[in-house]
Write a structure and sequence with these properties.
Shape: elongated
Radius of gyration: 30 Å
Helix content: under 10%
Strand content: 35-45%
Distance between the termini: 55 Å
Strand order of the largest sheet: 19-20-21-22-23
Low-confidence stretches: 291-319
Largest sheet: 5 strands, antiparallel
Structural class: mainly beta
Oligomer: single chain
Length: about 700
Amino acid sequence: MHLNEDSQPIWVEFKPEFDTSKSGETVQLSFGLVSNDRERMYFGTKKGLLLELLGIDPPRWENHGRPPGANVSAITDAATIRQGLLLIVSGAGDLYEYHRASKPPWKKHIHGEETKKHTRLASSSSSKACTLHGLVGPHSVSFFLLTKAGELIERRLHRRKWNWVVHGKPQGHQLSSITCPFTNDGSLLFTTVSGFVFEYVDSEDVEERWVNHKHPPHAKAARGVAGVSLQEGRRIFALDDGRLSELHLSGRRKYVWSLIDAPETEGWNAEYCTDERGPLNCILGTKEETSQVSSVWRKDSRTQVNYLLSSDGAPTLSDYNATLDRTLFRLRLMQASKSFFLITDNDLTFEYLNTENNGWFWLRHQHSTGIQGAIGNYNGSLFVVDEHGSLLIRERSGSDLAWINCTAMRKGRHVIGGSPWDGIPGLPLRAKPEDAIFLVSTTGRLLQFTVVLRKFKWKDCKNPPGIKIASIVDQEGFRNNIVFVTGENGRLYQYNKVTHLWHQHYQSQHLVLSTSLGTAMRSSVRTLRGSLFMLSEDGGLVEYQWSPMEGWNWIEHGSPHTNVTLVGAPGPCFGGSQLFLIGSDGSVYLRYLDLGEWKWSNCGFPYDGNTGCSDKDFGDDDIKRKSHVDKYCNPKISPTRSIPFEEDSVIFELQDGRLGEMKRTEDKKWIWSRTIGTPTSLCLENPWTSWAT
């Protein structure tokens, strides 16, 4: 980016071009670094090469290659000691020195016996060394680096001799990034993998060299992201929830935290200056010191005690034997008003399909293994889980049908669940280059499966350490790029698919969420105001609300009646003001907003005389009167998660295996419109069914 003749910033693309590009190969850059003398710019490629940008007009590149038998994984320093001298970390964690005029140009820094156990350096693209001069003499230079084990190690040049000095780490913590001081006399600050900030004081006059500055209330420092020194005594750190925080001196030489709220944005990433938000959103924000405990961002001011980051440990099945909850994935919408799928108790897969020539009929999709749940659809393809936990795709291409085993692909996994909805009901789906479906593995990890343009690819998003994921509450329905999940401990977490950071949301100790799915509700895509609806462990409705003025706030709606708890999963929702739920008494309930006040409506179940949803009070006699069943027909609603069929239609499964449809009339009332016979229900004769292989 540079300024044009009118002093306007414009983008100019620089494609790396050197001898290897003659074969048509595209060189992909991975990271870059400007030299300390500001005269050169170096880059590392995804294939481990070192490149130098020599000139801009025209662009001139030079390929410096890689260390013998190694690759370039990080450039830690350029031109501090002398012009053209670089320090490189390989993927294996070894330190190399490079200078094109030396013979040989690549030199490996060897460890002595006393530092062998600290040999492996962190090799991420953000592993830039902090350089300090004169710590042990007038001409000494010290490079501070992190090891793969999260320890601080120094590579020191003094009197033309290199030495290693191990400084270790704070007790009980692992370091994840270094924040360099503003001046050579300043101190080093570090973020840890658990979100704390430590200051290192290398002096024999202090008893404890590691000073814990902790973190701001309600959030912790982002893992692996270095801070920025604005001036001596002022450091800015990124937080995992998208905000910034400043650690600065405030009277009496005491450090305090100030929170800097980011402008409203989808996914809390960087889309601040979008057309939807407007240009003023780029510069709005609030700042407050943590001496005043309340926060604009969160209504509840109590500190989060379990703010967790991704776990690198390999989970085992011995302590987490998760299985798919079939009631959550028996129904799946394929095409609004045209097609949906039903997975039966005996592992059969049926599609209810509407064709111009034949009208409505059931189509059976046969597979060699039993299918236990439909966990997603994308661009006309259905994603299902079979009895072995394998992820399969059922896709249609013209008149042909095929099965694809995704678990058999490279890095494929076994899964037990997916996202609750495929997009937001009532809103058109927009294809994006990063489109993917998110899944829960049998070992409690979050998985990302890229599906766009059939470029299938698995990615392990891991899980908060020590916490296995139970279910996905919402995938990008409430916030772009954010996946909300519940852990097996009944707590709410989020995963940012851009920054790859995990964040645990605050909730009181008495509030334990069920391991069911959730539903996002937003009145408009142009506002970030909205809510996540979930069920509590005791069967009550819980709302997690976000508004620009109050931030996050938990609201417990309870249940519609003292004798009724909520089962299954909440949803679907319509218009940002109506939410369907299923009661333990086999009735459908509607939770809706009326002039800003939440109310309950009893929709019952499809039986003679039921005209639809009613606002009247509930009583035991009324519930018993509706409970008449016979040998084969039971019109009460099963706990199966319902699906939206159209913008004004919902499909429920009845306890006798049939389906019931509710529709919204022109006067905005919900009524039972019909029941649908299914191939496995004994209440009606089997409808017309076809088979597909």
